[in-house]
Design a protein that fits this description.
Two copies of one chain form a homodimer. With about 450 residues, the first copy, chain A, is α/β, with parallel strands linked by helices. Chain A folds into two domains: about 75-110 and about 235-445, Rossmann fold (3-Layer(aba) Sandwich); about 115-225, Rossmann fold (3-Layer(aba) Sandwich). Chain A contains 19 helices and 14 strands. In chain A, α3 runs antiparallel to α5, α4 (about 85-90) crosses α16 and α6 runs parallel beside α8 (about 170-175). The first copy, chain A, is globular and about 60 Å long. Chain A starts with 15 loop residues before the first strand and ends in a 9-residue tail after the last helix.
Chain lengths: ~450, ~450
C-alpha cells in the first residue's frame, strides 16, 4: 500500500487488507513449533484454525482481498469516522493538528470486530460449528460473540472468574449475543478440574482460561479456537483502520507526521500504523509510537526473543518482545493491555528501529482520558486513553518547539463498559505503582530455552 | 419539509430543523400558565429557558436554520447510519424491507444529544453559566453533561438516589464529563431538606429531583433548567433523525409505508416521524406507530386533557395524553419511558387520528431486543427494543398477508449501559405485570381542574 493506491470501495470500506510482510526490508523470524523448535507449518495449526486463516498467517501477498460477505458486515460500522480534535488542540494551545480514528462505533464498542468478523467467516466456510475462546476483560469475547452469531456459529467463552464477577456488563453482552459464558476455572475441562481440585475458590487467570478453551477446541471435531490479538492475520485484519484513515486524511489534504496507538497485543497499533509505515518503508518520513502501560512494559522493558504466546503452551513459540509468559502485571484498569508479549510483526519493526515505544502511568492515562472526554465529548476506553496521553505529550512538545505537526491516533473504543475504572480515578482511588524489578526478572528468567537460530 | 426538499448540507447533516406546527390542519392547543390558566407567554418561561429556545417553543416557522456551531458538533456522530436489517428479514422470512436509523453512535449512546447540543448552545449564547436538571435513568443527564461541557457550561444533576445506586454507570459517565451529580433528595435545596426531614432514608423520586433542580435553577441568576423531552423545541431538534433518514432512503429508492419508534416523552418518535408525516399531511399514504410500555400506556390508556408536565408544578399545563402527573409506573426496565405524559404535538397528532399507538409487554420487548442483537449485531437500548417488537409484529403481518412493505424504525440507542436489564431477562428474572386499573384511575382522578377552553 502506497500513497498512490486507493484500496477503498465506492462505499468507503476497504476492499483489501494490507500485509506488511513483503514490504519489510528483512523478513521477520518464523514462529516455531513449541516441541520441535522447527518453523511452524500449516499442519501444526490445523487443529485450532481454519486453513484460510493459516494461509493468511504466513502469507507474503501484499494485499488480500476482503470477501464481499465480510465487507457487508463491516458496513454496519465502517467506514469509521475520522475527526479532528479541534477543541483539544485549543485547550492545549498547540499548533499541532490532532486527528483521531474512532473505532468505538462498532456493535461491541471497540476495534475487535474488525478481526472477529473475518475469523467467524472463515471458520464458517470451513464448516466449523463452534468456537471456544478465553476472555479476560471481555472485549474479544464480545466481538467474537457478536460476529460468530451473525454466521450462525456458537461461541463458548471461558471467562476468568474474577473478571466476570467484578465487571459483569461484558459477560451479559456476550450472553445477549448468544454466547455461553463459563466461569473459569470450571468443571467442564480437565484443566479446570485440576485447578479446582487444588483450590475450589480459585479466582482463575487468563492462562487457566486459555488452557480450558484450548482443551475444549482440541477435543471437539467441529470446534476451533480463535485469537483476538498478536498473530499476523489478526493484525492484518485490523489494517482496515489505517487504510481508511489514510484516504480520509488525504481527502483533507493532510498526511500524519506522527501516528500513535495503544499497544497491548499490538493489533490495534499495527492496524492503524502499518498502512502508513508502508510509505515510511519506501522513504517517507514519519514516526509511529506504540504506547503501553508502565505496569506491563513489553516493548520498553521486555526482551526480544522466542516465547510462548500464552501461558498454556497453546500457541507456537513467537519471536517477540516479551516480559515472560508467566508475567502477571499488578492489577491495572486497562484490561485489554495485560498481555506479556506483543505481535511478532510489531516486535520486529521495533527491533529494526522503525517504530517507537513509550510506557505511561495509569493516573496520567486517566487524566488524559477525562480531558479528552471533556474537550471532544467521547469517553475513551482506558486502553485508548494510553494513546491520548502520548498524543497530548507530543502536542505539548509541538507547542514548546513551536512546530506544527499532524498527529493521528486510534480511539480504539468507547469507555461505556469501563465506567468503574473512571469512578476509581475520579474518586481518588486509582494509584500508580512502580513495577518491581524483581518481578520483571523473575518472569524473564522463566523464558523457554529455544535452540532454533536463523 | 416535503419529498422535494433536500435539507441536508453537503456533509449529509441537516441544515434545518423541521417544525411540524405550520403544516398541521388544526393548530395544537396552547400551553397554559398553571396559576392563571391563560396561554403561556414568553415571559413566563424566562426564569427557566433562554429566549432563543422559548421562541422555538412557540415558533410557527416550518424550517429553523441550525447554527454552524451546532452542526459542527453534530458532525461528531451525524449523519447517523441507516441500515437495512436483512438478516432480521431473513430470520422472520418476511417480504417486508426493514430499515433502521441508528442513533446509538452518539457520544452518550442515544438520540438525546440531538437536543442537548442546541440547548447547551442557546444557553451559552444567553450567558448562562450552569444548568440544573433532574435525572432518572440518566440518558438525559449524560447527553446534557456531554453537550454542556463542550460549551464550557457547568451541569448540576439531581439524580434519584435509587437509580444512582442501582445503575451507577451513567452517574459515573456524567461525572467524567464534569457534571456534579447530587443524590436526590439532598441537603442542597429546601425541597430536598423537607423530604429528608420526614424520611432521612428516602430513596427519592423523579418528582422530588425535578423540584430540587427547579429550585436550584430559579434561585440562581446565571443558572437555567433544561428538559430533554416533551416540549415542542425538543421534538423539533430531534427531527434531524427523520430528515436524514428520508434522504438516505430516497437514495436507495425507498419510501417507508410504516414508520415506527418507541415513545416515552415522544421526542424520539416525533424526531423520526415528523419529517415523514409532513408528506402524509400533504396526502401521501403512510402509517406512523408510537410504541409504549404496557405498564406506562400514555397514548393507549391515558386521557387527552390539560395536565402538568411534571409532578413538581414546574412546567406549564400541557394539552396532552396523560396518565396523571402523579402516576408512578410499576418498576419497568426501560427507564426512559416511565413518563406519565407525552409531547403535546404527538398527542395532538394522535387525537387527530394521524398516527397510531401500541403498547407492548416487557418480556416481548426483550425477546425482540435479543433477536435483533443476534440477527443484526447491535444490542438495542431497552427503549428502542419497544420499537423493534412492533417492527417484528408488522413484518410478520406482511408475511401472513403476503404484502411487501417498507418499514423504518429508530434504533434510538445502544444497550451498553443497560446490561443488567438484559441479565434479568436472560436469567428469567423479568416478569410481566398487568397495570392495576385502580392505579390508573387513581392517578387520572388527581388531574388538575383546568378552566381554559379554546
Amino acid at each position: 500500500m502506497t500513497d498512490q493506491e486507493n484500496l477503498l470501495g465506492s462505499d468507503g470500506i476497504p476492499r483489501f487488507w494490507y500485509n506488511i510482510v513483503p514490504d519489510l526490508p528483512k523478513p521477520p523470524a518464523a514462529s516455531l513449533h513449541p516441541a520441535t523448535h522447527k518453523p511452524v507449518v500449516a499442519d501444526d495449526l490445523k487443529r485450532l484454525f481454519p486453513e484460510a486463516l493459516i494461509a493468511q498467517e504466513t502469507s507474503t501477498e501484499r494485499l488480500i482481498e476482503i470477501p464481499e460477505e465480510i465487507r457487508e458486515i463491516y458496513g454496519l460500522w465502517r467506514p469509521t469516522p475520522l475527526h479532528r480534535a479541534k477543541r483539544l488542540e485549543k485547550a492545549l494551545d498547540t499548533p499541532a493538528h490532532i486527528y483521531y480514528k474512532y473505532e468505538g462505533v462498532s456493535p461491541s464498542g471497540s476495534h475487535k470486530p474488525n478481526t472477529a468478523v473475518p475469523q467467524a467467516y472463515y471458520n464458517k466456510q470451513a464448516g466449523i460449528k463452534r468456537l471456544a475462546i478465553e476472555s479476560g476483560a471481555g472485549q474479544w469475547g464480545c466481538a467474537l460473540a457478536f460476529a460468530a452469531r451473525l454466521f450462525g456459529i456458537d461461541v463458548t467463552v471461558y471467562m476468568v472468574k474474577g473478571n466476570s464477577q467484578h465487571k459483569p456488563y461484558r459477560r451479559i453482552a456476550m450472553e445477549t449475543w448468544g454466547a455461553k459464558v463459563i466461569s473459569s476455572p470450571s468443571e467442564e475441562t480437565a484443566a479446570g478440574r485440576a485447578v479446582l481440585a487444588l483450590d475450589p475458590e480459585s479466582p482463575g487467570s487468563l492462562g487457566i482460561a486459555m488452557s480450558e478453551a484450548a482443551e475444549d477446541a482440541s477435543n471437539t471435531a467441529d470446534t476451533n479456537y480463535a485469537l483476538g490479538s498478536v498473530l499476523n492475520h489478526v493484525v492484518m485484519h485490523q489494517t482496515v483502520i489505517g487504510i481508511e484513515a489514510k484516504e480520509q486524511l488525504k481527502a483533507l489534504g493532510e498526511s500524519p507526521n506522527i501516528v500513535i496507538a495503544c499497544c497491548g497485543g499490538g493489533t490495534n497499533f499495527g492496524g492503524l500504523s502499518f498502512p502508513f509505515l508502508a510509505d515510511k518503508l519506501k522513504g517517507k518520513e514519519m514516526r509511529a509510537i506504540a504506547v503501553e502501560p508502565e505496569l506491563c512494559p513489553t516493548l520498553t522493558k521486555g526482551e526480544f526473543r522466542y516465547d510462548l504466546g500464552d501461558n498454556a503452551g497453546l500457541t507456537p513459540l513467537l519471536m517477540m518482545y516479551t516480559l515472560g509468559h508467566d508475567f502477571m502485571p499488578p492489577g491495572i484498569h486497562a484490561g485489554g493491555m495485560r498481555y506479556h508479549g506483543v505481535s511478532p510483526l510489531v516486535s520486529h519493526l521495533f527491533n529494526e528501529g522503525l517504530i517507537e515505544a513509550r510506557s505511561v502511568q495509569q493516573s496520567a492515562v486517566f487524566e488524559a482520558g477525562v480531558m479528552f472526554a471533556r474537550c471532544e465529548g467521547i469517553i475513551p476506553a482506558p486502553e485508548s486513553a494510553h494513546a491520548i496521553r502520548t498524543v497530548i505529550d507530543e502536542a505539548l512538545r509541538c507547542k514548546e518547539q513551536k512546530t506544527q505537526k499532524t498527529i493521528l491516533f486510534c480511539l480504539s473504543g468507547h469507555g461505556h463498559f469501563d465506567m468503574p475504572s473512571y469512578d476509581d480515578y475520579l474518586t481518588g482511588n486509582l494509584h500508580d505503582h512502580e513495577l518491581p524489578e524483581e518481578q520483571l526478572h523473575a518472569a524473564l528468567s522463566k523464558l523457554p530455552h529455544v535452540e532454533f537460530r536463523w
